[in-house]
C-alpha cells in the first residue's frame, strides 16, 4: 500500500462502491478486507489500522469524516514501539485527505494536522498552500461552500504560523503563500485582514511596515479599502527601493504568472538605462567596428533570441542603423542556421534597413541579396515570410537606386538583372511562403537551359525570362555569394540549385570547392598530413550534394566528372565507418544510372565496374545495399565480365595503364602467393554475387564457357594443393581464425555452380534456340568434379546444376544416365543433411520424369530405389521415398511401392527358402512385422492421410489379383490382407469417417476394396488345389478376408455398399455373383445384430446404424437398383445350374425385406418375380420363394393385393402336392428339402397373407380351411413345430377375417 498509494485508493474506493450497492454488506466487506490485510483479527486495538485507512477512502463523505473523528479520539496515532509503520500509513492517508473533494473532510483533516509532526514540514506547507488557494477560489466564485472555505482559510493560517517555530526557514514559503491575499478585496476582506494579521507576525523584511488591520476589520467607511491597499503598497514599495536586489527575485517568484505586470512596472526604468547605454556606445560602434563586431553579434543574438524580443525591436533597429556593417552582421545570422527567433528578428531588421530612405546601406543590402535565399528556403513558414518581406524591400530598394552612376566594381555585374530577378521571386510570394519546395523549382526553371527542367507549379515560359548569358551571370552571382557563407548557408544554396544538374559543378569555384573537400577528406583519413581537419556534418552534406550533381547527365552526352565519381567510390580496402567517406560514396551510388555509365569512356566503365565489385564486398551494409541497387540499374556488357573472369588477378585498379598491361602476361596458375590468392578469390566472390543478383547482363550465356574453364582450373591439383599449402603456412605464421584460402576456393566453386544454374535456367525460358551455347555445357566435367569432391562441399551444388540442366536440355544426359544415377545413389547413402536432401529431391524431380518419358516404366524406377533403401540410413529412407512418390504421383505409385516392398520381404523371408515348407500364419506374421520392409510400408502410409493410402490398398489388391497363380502370390496376398486389416483400424481413418470429409471418395474406395476382396476370395476357393498352401493357412486367409469385408461393410454407407453390390452382381463369373449375394445376406443379418448391440452404445455407432434404418435419397436409389439386379438374377434362365444363384438371390430378398420393413415399390417387383418362381420344379427353390413371399407381404401389406391371386394359386397348389407326396415333381433337391420344409414354408407364407390381407381371402377360405383342418401332418399334430405354426395361423384367421365374410356353413360342409 505504501508503494502504490494511488492505486490502493482507487481499488478501495471501487470496492466500497460495489459493497455499498449490496444492501447490508458494506460494513461486512470493509471488516473482511481490513482483517485480511491486518493479518490479526483479534487485535486489542479499538480499531484495526486497515479499517481506519479504508474508511478514509470510503466513497461517502460522511464515512470519511466519521473516520477522522474516530481517529482523533483513538490512541492509534501514538506510535507504539515496533510498529511505526502503522502511524506512517495513517499519516500518509491523513495528508491525502487535505486534497479531498468534500470541504468538510478537509476541515476535519486540518483538525488532526498536529499529528503530522514526524513528517516533512515542507511537504505539509505545500499541501496547506494548495488548500489555501483552493478555498480562496471557492470563496471568490460565490458557491454554497463559502462559509466552510473561509473557516478552512483561517485554519490554514493558524497552522502555518504555528509551524514557523518548528521550521524557521519556512518563513519564506509562508510569505510567498500569503502575498496574494494582502490586498483587500470586498468579498474576501475578512480573510485579507487575517492575512495581514498573520503577515505582521512573520519575521519577513518585506512585511515589516504593513499597516495595522485589527481596528480596520470591524468598521469600514466608503473608500477605506482603497486607502488601506494604498498604505500596504506604499509600505512594501519603501522596502523595495531600500533593498531592490534582495526584493526583486522574491517578488518575481511571488507573482507567479503576473510577470508581465511586473515588467510593465520595471520597463520605464530599464528603458532609461538602455538609452543611456546606447548613447554611450554609439561612438565605439562606429569607430572600432572590428573590435566590437563579435560583441555586437552576441548582443544582437541575446536580444533577438529572448522570449520578449518584440520589446527590444526598437533598440535592435537603433543598433543596426548605427552599425556600418549591419548587412553583413544580419546576413551572418540567417545564413548560419541559428535559432528561429534570431533568424526572424535579423530578417525584420534587414527589411527595416531596406525601407530606410538613406542609401548608406543600399548597395551592401543588394549585394547581400543571395543571402536572403537561405531563410527563404527555411522549413519554418514564419522565417520564409520574413525573408519574403526582405526581398520585397530589396525590390523596392532597387527602384530607388540609380545604378547608372555606379558602373564600376561588382555592382555592374548584377545591377542590370537584380531588379527583374527579385520581381520574379516576389511575384510568386504566396507559393514560396506556403510551399517550401517551390523556390527550388522556380530558381531551377529560371537558370536552367530550355526544356531541361519542367515543373507544373512554375508558370509557363519562366525558363525563357532570361537569356543564356544572363542565366550564367545570375548563377555566378548567387554562387559567388554562397561560397562566402558558412557551410550551412552553402548547403542551402546548393540544395536550391541542385535541379540544374552538373551545371552547378561546372562553375569553376564550385568544382574547386568539391576538389578541396575531397582532398581534405582523403588527406585526413590517410593520416599523412595532420594539418587537414575533419569535414563537418554540413561539409559532408555539401560534398554529397556536389557529387550527386556530378552524376547527372550532360547535354553534350559526356560524363565530364567521371574522375570525381570514381574517386568517391574508391573506399579504403580496410573497414571504414566514418560518414565523411561512406556518405559521399553512397550518394554517388544512389545517383549512378545507366545513362551516366554509358556516357563514360570504355576504360572508365571497366574501372568503375571493378570498384563496384569491390564495394559489393564492403563490410558496411549501407554501402553494400547501395552498390547492389546501382548495379541493378546498369547495363553491364558481358564482354567486360568475361574479361574479368578470364583475368581475375588484375585487382589493382589504381595502377597505371602500362602497369596493368604488364600484369596481363601473368596467368592464374603462376599465382602461388597467399595474398594474391586471397585477393583473387575475394574479387571473384563479389563478382559472382553480382552475376547471381544481376539478371539483365546482355548476352549472359556467353559466360558459360569462361565459367566452365574456371571450374576446371580450380579443380586442378595446382589450385587445390596450393590453397591447402597456403592455409598451412598461414596457420603456422599466425593465430588468425579468419576465412582460409581453401574455404574461399570452395565458396567460389559453389557460387560458380549457382551462376551456371541460373544462366542455364534463363536459357530454358528463352524462346530462341541456344544449341551453340549448350555445347559449352560439360556434363562429364561436372560428374568428375562430383566424384573428386571428397569433402562433399560442392557435391550438392553440382547435383543441383545437373538437375537444372536436365530440365532445360535433358538430352545432354542420354550418354551419362548410368553415371548420374551412380552419383545420385552415392549422395543418397552418404549425405544426410537437409541441404543435401533438398538437392537430392531437385535432381529426382528433373531426372526421373525424363527417365519415365524414355522408359515409361514407373515400377522399374521404384525398384531401383527400393533396392538401395537397405543401404540408406533409416532417417533418410522416408524422406527419399516420399519425395519420389510425389514426383511419380502418390495415387498411382504408392500401391506399386507397397507391392515391391512385400515382394522384397517375401524374397528374403520365404519359408521354403529357409527349409521350412510349412507356413504357420500367426508365427509367420509375427516375424514378418519385425522386418524393415513391413515397418517401412506402415511408416509410409502413416505419412499420408487415408485419402491417399486407402485407394492404394484397392490398387494393391488389384495388382495381387492380376498376378500369376503361385505360392509367392498367395503369401503376398496374405501379407496384403494382414496389412489392410491393420490399416482399416487406423484412428485417422475413424476420425475422417466421423467428420464426413471426402466421404464420397472414401466410400467409393471401400466399394473397390470390397469388390477386389470378393473376387480374390473366389480365386482362393477355386485354385485351392493348384496352390500348395496348407489348409490351416488357407483358412486363416479366408477368415481375415471375411473379417476385412465385415469391417468395411460397417464403415460403408448404404448407398456405397449397394453400389458395390451392383457392380459385383454384374460380374461375368457366376460364383462371384453368388458370393456377393451371400455376403449381402450375411452383412444385413450382422447389421441387425449390431443394431441390438449399439443400443446405449457410442453416438457414432448409433448414427451409422440409423443410416441403415432410414435410407436417404441416394441410398434408396441404389437400393432400388440393387433389388432390380437381384430380381434380374431370379428371373434368369431356369437351368438347374443357376439354382444356387437363384436361391442366394431369393434369400437376399428375404433378408432385405426383414432388414428394411418399409413398403418400398421395388419390393412389389420382387414379390411378382418370387411368386412366379413358387411353382418351380425345385422344392428347395419353392420353399425359399414361399418364405421370401411371406417376408415381402409383411412389408408391403395391402400393396401386395395385386399379387394375391397368383400367390394363393401357387401356395394352394404346392400345399396340395405336399399332402399327396409331391407326385410328378422333380425331386432332385429332395435330399435337402422335405415335404415338412415345404409345408412349414407354406404356413409361413399363409401366416403373412392372413395377417396383412385377411379381408380379401374369401375366395380362398375353403382351401385354407382344408389345409389347416384336413392336412394329415397338421391334423395329427405329431410335429410340434408344424402344429405350433398351424395353431398360430388358425388363431390369426379368427382374429383377422371378419365374421360377415366367413362362410361357416360352407366350411363345415366342406370339412
Question: Which tags fit this structure?
Answer:
ARM-type_fold, ARM_At3g06530, 1311 residues, flat, snoRNA binding, mainly alpha
Written overview of the protein:
The protein is mainly alpha-helical and 1311 residues long. The chain is built from 68 helices and no strands. It is flat, with a radius of gyration of 56 Å.
Low-confidence stretches: 21-25, 40-48, 267-289, 650-672, 731-738, 1222-1231, 1307-1311
Strand composition percent:
under 5%
| Relative helix content | 55-70%
Report mean pLDDT, rounded to a whole number.
77
Radius of gyration from CA coordinates: 56 Å
Q: Report the strand count.
A: 0
N-end to C-end Cα span: 112 Å
Shape: flat
Describe the largest sheet: none
Number of helices: 68
Helix/strand/pairing category: mainly alpha
Describe the secondary-structure layout:
Elements: H1 5-21, H2 26-38, H3 49-56, H4 61-73, H5 84-97, H6 103-110, H7 121-141, H8 146-162, H9 171-178, H10 189-201, H11 224-242, H12 244-255, H13 259-287, H14 289-304, H15 313-321, H16 326-334, H17 340-355, H18 362-367, H19 369-376, H20 381-400, H21 411-414, H22 418-427, H23 429-434, H24 438-447, H25 468-482, H26 487-496, H27 503-506, H28 508-526, H29 537-550, H30 562-569, H31 579-591, H32 594-599, H33 602-616, H34 621-633, H35 638-646, H36 657-663, H37 674-693, H38 704-714, H39 717-733, H40 741-765, H41 771-774, H42 779-788, H43 795-808, H44 817-830, H45 834-855, H46 858-868, H47 874-888, H48 890-909, H49 921-928, H50 932-943, H51 946-961, H52 967-983, H53 987-995, H54 999-1022, H55 1031-1051, H56 1054-1065, H57 1070-1094, H58 1099-1109, H59 1113-1130, H60 1139-1155, H61 1161-1172, H62 1179-1196, H63 1204-1219, H64 1235-1253, H65 1261-1270, H66 1272-1276, H67 1280-1296, H68 1304-1310
Helix pairs in contact: 1-2, 2-3, 3-5, 4-6, 6-8, 7-8, 8-10, 11-12, 15-17, 16-17, 17-20, 19-20, 20-22, 26-29, 28-29, 29-31, 31-34, 33-37, 37-40, 38-40, 40-43, 42-43, 43-45, 45-47, 46-48, 47-48, 48-50, 48-51, 48-52, 51-52, 51-54, 52-55, 54-55, 54-56, 56-59, 57-58, 57-60, 59-60, 59-61, 60-62, ...
Amino acid at each position: 500500500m505504501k508503494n502504490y498509494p494511488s492505486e490502493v485508493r482507487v481499488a478501495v474506493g471501487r470496492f466500497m462502491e460495489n459493497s455499498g450497492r449490496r444492501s447490508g454488506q458494506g460494513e461486512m466487506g470493509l471488516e473482511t478486507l481490513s482483517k485480511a490485510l491486518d493479518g490479526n483479527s483479534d487485535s486489542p486495538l479499538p480499531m484495526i489500522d486497515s479499517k481506519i485507512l479504508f474508511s478514509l477512502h470510503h466513497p461517502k463523505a460522511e464515512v470519511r469524516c466519521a473516520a477522522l473523528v474516530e481517529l482523533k479520539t483513538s490512541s492509534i496515532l501514538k506510535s507504539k514501539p515496533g510498529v511505526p509503520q502503522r502511524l506512517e500509513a495513517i499519516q500518509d492517508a491523513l495528508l491525502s485527505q487535505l486534497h479531498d473533494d468534500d470541504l468538510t473532510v478537509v476541515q476535519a483533516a486540518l483538525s488532526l494536522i498536529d499529528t503530522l509532526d514526524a513528517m516533512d514540514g515542507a511537504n505539509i506547507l505545500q499541501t496547506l498552500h494548495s488548500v489555501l488557494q483552493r478555498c480562496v477560489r471557492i470563496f471568490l466564485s460565490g458557491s454554497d461552500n463559502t462559509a466552510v472555505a473561509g473557516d478552512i482559510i483561517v485554519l490554514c493560517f493558524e497552522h502555518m504560523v504555528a509551524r514557523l517555530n518548528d521550521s524557521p526557514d519556512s518563513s519564506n514559503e509562508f510569505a510567498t503563500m500569503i502575498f496574494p491575499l494582502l490586498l483587500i478585496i470586498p468579498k474576501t476582506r475578512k480573510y485579507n485582514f487575517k492575512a495581514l494579521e498573520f503577515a505582521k507576525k512573520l519575521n519577513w523584511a518585506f512585511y515589516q511596515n504593513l499597516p495595522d488591520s485589527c481596528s480596520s476589520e470591524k468598521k469600514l467607511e466608503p473608500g477605506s479599502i482603497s486607502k488601506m491597499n494604498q498604505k500596504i503598497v506604499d509600505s512594501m514599495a519603501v522596502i523595495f527601493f531600500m533593498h531592490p536586489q534582495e526584493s526583486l527575485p522574491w517578488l518575481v517568484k511571488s507573482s507567479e504568472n503576473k510577470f508581465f505586470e511586473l515588467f510593465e512596472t520595471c520597463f520605464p526604468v530599464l528603458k532609461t538605462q538602455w538609452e543611456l547605454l546606447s548613447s554611450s556606445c554609439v561612438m565605439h560602434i562606429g569607430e572600432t567596428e572590428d573590435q566590437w563586431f563579435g560583441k555586437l553579434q552576441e548582443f544582437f543574438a541575446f536580444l533577438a533570441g529572448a522570449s520578449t524580443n518584440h520589446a527590444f525591436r526598437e533598440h535592435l533597429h537603433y543598433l543596426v542603423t548605427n552599425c556600418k556593417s549591419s548587412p553583413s552582421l544580419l546576413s551572418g545570422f540567417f545564413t548560419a542556421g541559428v535559432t528561429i527567433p534570431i533568424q526572424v528578428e535579423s530578417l525584420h531588421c534587414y527589411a527595416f534597413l531596406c525601407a530606410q530612405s538613406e542609401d548608406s546601406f543600399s548597395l551592401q543590402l543588394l549585394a547581400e541579396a543571395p543571402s536572403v535565399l537561405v531563410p527563404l528556403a527555411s522549413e519554418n513558414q514564419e522565417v520564409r515570410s520574413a525573408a519574403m518581406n526582405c526581398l520585397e524591400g530589396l525590390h523596392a530598394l532597387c527602384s530607388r537606386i540609380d545604378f547608372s552612376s555606379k558602373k564600376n566594381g561588382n555592382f555592374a555585374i548584377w545591377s542590370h538583372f537584380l531588379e527583374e530577378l527579385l520581381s520574379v521571386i516576389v511575384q510568386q510570394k504566396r507559393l514560396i511562403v506556403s510551399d517550401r519546395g517551390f523556390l527550388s523549382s522556380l530558381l531551377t526553371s529560371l537558370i536552367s537551359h530550355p526544356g531541361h527542367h519542367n515543373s507544373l507549379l512554375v508558370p509557363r515560359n519562366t525558363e525563357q525570362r532570361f537569356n543564356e548569358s544572363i542565366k550564367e551571370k545570375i548563377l555566378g552571382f548567387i554562387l559567388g555569394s554562397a561560397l562566402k557563407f558558412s557551410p550551412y548557408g552553402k548547403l542551402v544554396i546548393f540544395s536550391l540549385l541542385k535541379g540544374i544538374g552538373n551545371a552547378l559543378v561546372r562553375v569553376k569555384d564550385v568544382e574547386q570547392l568539391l576538389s578541396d573537400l575531397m582532398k581534405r577528406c582523403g588527406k585526413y583519413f590517410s593520416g599523412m598530413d595532420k594539418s587537414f581537419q575533419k569535414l563537418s556534418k554540413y561539409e559532408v552534406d555539401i560534398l554529397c550534394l556536389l557529387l550527386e550533381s556530378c552524376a547527372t547527365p550532360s547535354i553534350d552526352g559526356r560524363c565530364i566528372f567521371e574522375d570525381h565519381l570514381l574517386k568517391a567510390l574508391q573506399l579504403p580496402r580496410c573497414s571504414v565507418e566514418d560518414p565523411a567517406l561512406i556518405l559521399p560514396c553512397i550518394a554517388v551510388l544512389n545517383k549512378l544510372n545507366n545513362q551516366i555509365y554509358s556516357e563514360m569512356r570504355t576504360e572508365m566503365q571497366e574501372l568503375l565496374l571493378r570498384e563496384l565489385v569491390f564495394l559489393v564486398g564492403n563490410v558496411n551494409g549501407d554501402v553494400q545495399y547501395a552498390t547492389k541497387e546501382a548495379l541493378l540499374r546498369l547495363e553491364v556488357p558481358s564482354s567486360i565480365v568475361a574479361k574479368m573472369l578470364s583475368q581475375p588477378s588484375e585487382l589493382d585498379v589504381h595502377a597505371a595503364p602500362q602497369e596493368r598491361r604488364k600484369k596481363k602476361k601473368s596467368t592464374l596458375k603462376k599465382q602461388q602467393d597467399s595474398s594474391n590468392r586471397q585477393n583473387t578469390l575475394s574479387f571473384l566472390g563479389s563478382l559472382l554475387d553480382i552475376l547471381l543478383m544481376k539478371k539483365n547482363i546482355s548476352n549472359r550465356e556467353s559466360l558459360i564457357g569462361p565459367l566452365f574453364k574456371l571450374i576446371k582450373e580450380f579443380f586442378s591439383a595446382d589450385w587445390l594443393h596450393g590453397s591447402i599449402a597456403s592455409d598451412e603456412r598461414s596457420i603456422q605464421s599466425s593465430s588468425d581464425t579468419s576465412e582460409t584460402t581453401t574455404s574461399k576456393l570452395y565458396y567460389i566453386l559453389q557460387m560458380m555452380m549457382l551462376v551456371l544454374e541460373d544462366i542455364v535456367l534463363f536459357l530454358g525460358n528463352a524462346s530462341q534456340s541456344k544449341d551453340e551455347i549448350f555445347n559449352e555445357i560439360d556434363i562429364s566435367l561436372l560428374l568428375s568434379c562430383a566424384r573428386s569432391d571428397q569433402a562433399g562441399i560442392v557435391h550438392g551444388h553440382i547435383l543441383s546444376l545437373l538437375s537444372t540442366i536436365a530440365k532445360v536440355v535433358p538430352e545432354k544426359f542420354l550418354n551419362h544416365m548410368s553415371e548420374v544415377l551412380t552419383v545420385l545413389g552415392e549422395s543418397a547413402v552418404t549425405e544426410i543433411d537437409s541441404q543435401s536432401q533438398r538437392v537430392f529431391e531437385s535432381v529426382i524431380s528433373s531426372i526421373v520424369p525424363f527417365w519415365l518419358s524414355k522408359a515409361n516404366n514407373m515400377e522399374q524406377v521404384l525398384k531401383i530405389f527400393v533396392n538401395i533403401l537397405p543401404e540408406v540410413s533409416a532417417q533418410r529412407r522416408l524422406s527419399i521415398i516420399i519425395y519420389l512418390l510425389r514426383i511419380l504421383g502418390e495415387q498411382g505409385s504408392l500401391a506399386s511401392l507397397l507391392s515391391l516392398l512385400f515382394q522384397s520381404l517375401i524374397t528374403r523371408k520365404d519359408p521354403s527358402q529357409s527349409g521350412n515348407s510349412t507356413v504357420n500364419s500367426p508365427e509367420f506374421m509375427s516375424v514378418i512385422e519385425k522386418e524393415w520392409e513391413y515397418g517401412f510400408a506402415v511408416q509410409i502410409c502413416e505419412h499420408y492421410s487415408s485419402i491417399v493410402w486407402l485407394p492404394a490398398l484397392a490398387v494393391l489388391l488389384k495388382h495381387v489379383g492380376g498376378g500369376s497363380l503361385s505360392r509367392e502370390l498367395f503369401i503376398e496376398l496374405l501379407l496384403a490382407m494382414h496389412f489392410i486389416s491393420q490399416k482399416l483400424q487406423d484412428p485417422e481413418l475413424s476420425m475422417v469417417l466421423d467428420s464426413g470429409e471426402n466421404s464420397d471418395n472414401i466410400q467409393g474406395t471401400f466399394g473397390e476394396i470390397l469388390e477386389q476382396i470378393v473376387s480374390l476370395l473366389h480365386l482362393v476357393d477355386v485354385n485351392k488345389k493348384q496352390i500348395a498352401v496348407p489348409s490351416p493357412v488357407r483358412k486363416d486367409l479366408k477368415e481375415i478376408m471375411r473379417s476385412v469385408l465385415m469391417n468395411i461393410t460397417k464403415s460403408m454407407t448404404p448407398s456405397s455398399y449397394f453400389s458395390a453390390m451392383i457392380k459385383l452382381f454384374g460380374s461375368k463369373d457366376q460364383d462371384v455373383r453368388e458370393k456377393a449375394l451371400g455376403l449381402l445376406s450375411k452383412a444385413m443379418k450382422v447389421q441387425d445384430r449390431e443394431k441390438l448391440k449399439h443400443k446405449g452404445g457410442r453416438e457414432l455407432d448409433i448414427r451409422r446404424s440409423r443410416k441403415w434404418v432410414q435410407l436417404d435419397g441416394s441410398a434408396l436409389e441404389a437400393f432400388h437398383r440393387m433389388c432390380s439386379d437381384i430380381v434380374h438374377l431370379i428371373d434368369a434362365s431356369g437351368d438347374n445350374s443357376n439354382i444356387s444363384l437363384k436361391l442366394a438371390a431369393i434369400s437376399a430378398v428375404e433378408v432385405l425385406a426383414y432388414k428394411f420393413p418399409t413398403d418400398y415399390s421395388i419390393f412389389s417387383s420382387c414379390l411378382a418375380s418370387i411368386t412366379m418362381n413358387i411353382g418351380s420344379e425345385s422344392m428347395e427353390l419353392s420353399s425359399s420363394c414361399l418364405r421370401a413371399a411371406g417376408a415381402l407381404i409383411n412389408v408391403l401389406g395391402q400393396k401386395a393385393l395385386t399379387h394375391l391371386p397368383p400367390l394363393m394359386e401357387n401356395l394352394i397348389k404346392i400345399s396340395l402336392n405336399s399332402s399327396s407326396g409331391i407326385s410328378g415333381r422333380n425331386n432332385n433337391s429332395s435330399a435337402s428339402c422335405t415335404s415338412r420344409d415345404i409345408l412349414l414354408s407354406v404356413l409361413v407364407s399363409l401366416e403373412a397373407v392372413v395377417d396383412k390381407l385377411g379381408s380379401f381371402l374369401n375366395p380362398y377360405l375353403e382351401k385354407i380351411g382344408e389345409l389347416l383342418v384336413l392336412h394329415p401332418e397338421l391334423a395329427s399334430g405329431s410335429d410340434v413345430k408344424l402344429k405350433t405354426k398351424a395353431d398360430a395361423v388358425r388363431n390369426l384367421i379368427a382374429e383377422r377375417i371378419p365374421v360377415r365374410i366367413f362362410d361357416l356353413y360352407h366350411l363345415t360342409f366342406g370339412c
